[in-house]
Amino acid sequence: RAKHDGKGMFHFFEPSLDVQARQRREMELDLRTAIREGGFELYFQPLYSLKEDRLKAFEALIRWPHPEKGMISPADFIPLAEDTGLIVQIGEWVIREACHQAASWPGDLSVAVNVSPKQFLSPNIAGVVMSALASSGLPATRLELEITESIFISNVEKTLGALHSLRALGVRIALDDFGTGYSSLSYLRSFPFDKLKIDQSFVRDLTQDASAHAVIRAITTLADALGMETLAEGVEDEAQAEILRKEGCRQIQGYWLSRPIDARATQQYIERMRGEAGVLRRTA
Ligand code: C2E
Ligand code: MG
Ligand code: MG
Ligand code: MG
Question: Where does the record place the EAL domain (predicted)?
């Protein structure tokens, strides 16, 4: 459909759609370049055990410092990477780099890596993980993979197959953003998750809303009964952390502990947490 734009020009598409399509194509080309030239970076955010009162792990979060556009957040390029299939290559880099970084951390600190559905269901996922563990020297028990509930809308058989072969390696699997997606409780019975990561939307209302307490309590009770760990995402203040501790949530993650930080700052964070006693306790 031709459209007059008022400047004596005719466009054959809605200008906005045209612009969007062009931006997507441009971004796809930029993503390909970034894959080729190593243009991504990993940031890390601490996962803290309330139960043991110590640092347990870091979640690896991808960042894309774009040469012209500045830092692009994953929310702005992971969906396109997923649509184009580029996520498989990007995600492989993330797994390798995360394992490599974690292997340099002291003690038994783990790393958690986000894996998108297309990547999780790609035929060689277990091979990629095995090879990343072997070349980094990281023990499988120190790697945790995070998948979201959206995985359930695709092939259930394939998902189960991948879950079992990864767990056979000794890798742990967490269900990310729990409570926001499609999950039916029956999935929790048939899929072997090690951890439920309670979505930050449930944490946000904790200090105002009694029903938010009830939801957290129900999730932790259920997870305990199924032998799964719980972690609350998006913990921004001490009051939320205290409620979560009281409601039996095992681990927390959020700006209260730290924003995501680069690899160097992560090393410094670990050193600071170790303090003089050499224990990974929160000192502040
Ligand atoms: P996610 O896995 O649920 O990661 C948590 C997100 O919440 C991160 O956003 C983190 O910066 C943010 N966050 C952490 N604590 C707080 C808090 O206290 N308050 C608030 N408001 N936000 C907090 P980020 O880094 O922008 O990542 C967004 C999403 O992008 C991630 O959500 C994950 O789904 C995806 N993602 C990130 N890295 C990767 C990756 O390497 N591969 C894949 N497939 N997806 C990734
Ligand atoms: Mg995650
Ligand atoms: Mg999450
Ligand atoms: Mg989230």
Answer: 24-274
Report CA(10)–ligand 1 centroid distance (Å).
Answer: 42
Burial 216-240 (b: 16+ CB within 10 A, else e): beebbeebeeeebbbbbbbbeeeeb
Instruction: Report the nearest-CA residue for atom 11 of ligand 1.
Output: 260
Calculate the average pLDDT of the chain.
91
CA of 177 to the centre of ligand 4 (A): 5
Residue 258, both tokens: 């730290």
**Nearest residue by C-alpha to atom 9 in ligand 1:** 61
Q: Quick check: ipTM above 0.95?
A: yes
H or E stretch covering 270: helix 263-274
What string of DSSP letters covers 26-95? HHHHHHHHHHHHT--EEEEEEEEETTTTEEEEEEEEEEEEETTTEEEPHHHHHHHHHHHTTHHHHHHHHH
Burial of 58 from C-beta contacts in 10 A (0-12 / 13-18 / 19+):
buried
Phi, psi of 159 (to 5 degrees): -60, -45
**Would you list the DSSP string of 165-192?**
HHHHTT-EEEEEEETSSS--HHHHHHS-
pLDDT digits (tens, 9 = 90+) for 118-127: 999 999 999 9
As beta bridge partners, residue 60 has: 44, 113
Task: Give pTM, 2 decimals.
Answer: 0.93
